[in-house]
Hints:
It is a single chain. This protein is α/β, with parallel strands linked by helices. It is built from six helices and 14 strands. It has one domain (2-228): Ribonuclease Z/Hydroxyacylglutathione hydrolase-like (Metallo-beta-lactamase, Chain A). β1 (2-7) and β2 form a beta hairpin. α1 (35-45) packs across α2 and α3 crosses α5. The longest helix is centred in the middle third of the chain and has 14 residues, at 155-168.
Amino acid sequence: MFFRQRLAKEATLSYMLGCGSCAVGVAVDPVAGDEDWFIEEAARQNVKITHVFDTHVHADHYSGGRALAEKTGAQYCLHESNQGRVKFPFQALSDGEIIDVGNVAVQVIHTPGHTPDSMCLTVTDKRRSAEPWFVLTGDTLFVGSLGRPDLAGKGKEWAEQLYDSLHAKLMSLPDSVEVFPGHTSGSACGAGISGKPSSTVGYEKRFNTGLKIDNKNEFVQYILADIPPRPAEMERIVASNLGAA
């Protein structure tokens, strides 16, 4: 198995991973303008990119997902809740669905809260274990912080969904599972994000303040009390990522 993390614009963390022995790989959350980096990395690894995932329709940066999929012939993947919302065809993913990438298994976890379509991806190297090795958490869980739930003006409703996603799904993963988020410090998608680009489920359970709040009402009050400014040009970015502009 190979794994690459890339720091891109707007403090975004993008990923490429896959199975070298089977010559296949996938890209996760590529930023517009970075398509050639993924293509060059695939060539270095001697793999074909088969799937491109966006963990949600981004509001803070332009996605390079569709462009990368078109350039490589890969499937462009979003959560199925985007059907009828986006203006282009995509591979609709459902909760629990597994994408096999050679000896690597990528499983979808639907984690609404930051956005209704947010999903995380657990990654298992089947040559090593049947258990997931790490999880790509998108904008749901950051190192030391959580994704903001307010961008569509539904802060309380989405914060309640985020609480359920975190406690019922992500926190049920083994403590040893590594956490690789969609942003590092400097992003507008969460308050107080650490500059460290990875963590573990167990460490975040112990030291992430928001995760330690086990009362939903208190959690909602906590996360809505510290909201960063909205991303610049958010409406234009979302429209573009939906294919409406």
